[in-house]
# Entry
Amino acid sequence: MRAYKSKVVSPIQLPERDERAANLERAGYNVFELDSEGVYVDLLTDSGTGTMSESQWAALMKGDESYAGSTSFERLQEAISDVMGFERIVPAHQGRGAENVLYGALVSEGDYVPNNTHFDTTRAHVTNAGGEPVDCPLDASVEGIESGEEGENRNFAGDLDVEKVRELAAEVGAERIPAVVVTLTNNSLAGQPVSVENVRRAREVADELDAVFVIDACRFAENAFFVRERDPAFADASVAEVAREQLSSADAVVMSGKKDGLVNVGGFVGIGDDPALDGLYDRARERGILFEGFTTYGGMAGRDLEAMAVGLREAVEERYVADRVGQVQRLGDMLAERDVPVVRPTGGHAVYVDAAAFLPEIPAEQFPGQALVCELYREGGVRGVELGSFAFPDTDRPELVRLALPRRTYGADHLEHVAETFESVAERRDAGEISGLEIVEEPGMAELRHFSAELRPVAEREATTAD
Ligand SMILES: Cc1ncc(COP(=O)(O)O)c(C=O)c1O
# Structure
């Protein structure tokens, strides 16, 4: 059952098939270059693309745009304290701004930072501060995702492997590890959740190393929902209670409000009230002023602070989070029923498709993930994103395509359309009509190529050469 009805609508349309094909060609077979007007169901990201509630829109009007001492900041502070348990806040324009503030204050040249899996911007900010990001996922989870089999610990496949953190400390010295980080949910590992028990063990290992324990809380409410559903110890708890319990282990949280803050822009760092963290708070506050803006707005308008204050409270409401995660699970099930090889169990914010298995005729060097992304647009105006060898050159990541659902935005008929689009792509695949792709032009930084590289179908070049 849906928990919402629409009050404000955004018109969308599905362009004709030949128009979609022309759009794709014009975009250089790179969906980041498509105009959003030509996209029918946009599953590029769940970040900042959701729908605000009537309470959030009403709160916008109360935005206090004062440079200093804004009452909107007080309201945000109160919400973060109530929902997440942190009173010392440094606001930022979005998650990566908060990461810059926090990791710049924590990490020095030559340090190592373990994380269950670094999200791309987290990795970049740790590196930028002179540190070495070290991913410590459970091997079984990674193998499960790579092989398409469900790994062990399927309920909490996002967990941190705390033994890997201990091994890292034995190798490089505990003094070189300023922070231990856990990302809830584990975005770079197919959005898999992390258990409360795992967070407690991560806290213990951080204490052993005398390191700051940080939680990347972007999707803390979705994670708490999974804990309540999957861990019998929390079966009778509310999502709000689980979230508070899980976050209470952390010394600091770093947050992109564009996810479980239910807003289109915004973020913050939260720092615990332990006096041992006073120095960290002072440094973070200073960096906040330097890079984001004064401490009571930090790169956000007063109205944005208000919207996030309301959004954080809504994110832990039972009907919201059940509706949200349920929708993602449903899309995963619909695709699995149609023999689309999806990563199981489905994560909290997105469905991940194994493109190499779906398009087995396309060799890795012809980017099967990107080919699938292009076909989804051509066949149904659906936009997903490749997270395989095109996005991450020179790594041996599996050829995944991510379909991320914006929050409170699409309905069952949109999901049905996505599933039908996969059926059409499968028909074209079976008829041998899908070509792999090759890069025509790419930017200097290979890591950024999935945003702007230009590609073309290999079959097109072969046809031209044959002429
Ligand atoms: C786990 C995680 N951390 C940090 C970020 C960065 O947040 P933002 O996009 O708001 O800069 C993201 C964004 O997707 C994320 O998923």
Summary: The CA atoms of residues 115 and 181 lie 5 Å apart. The radius of gyration is 22 Å. Residues 318-337 form the longest helix (20 residues).
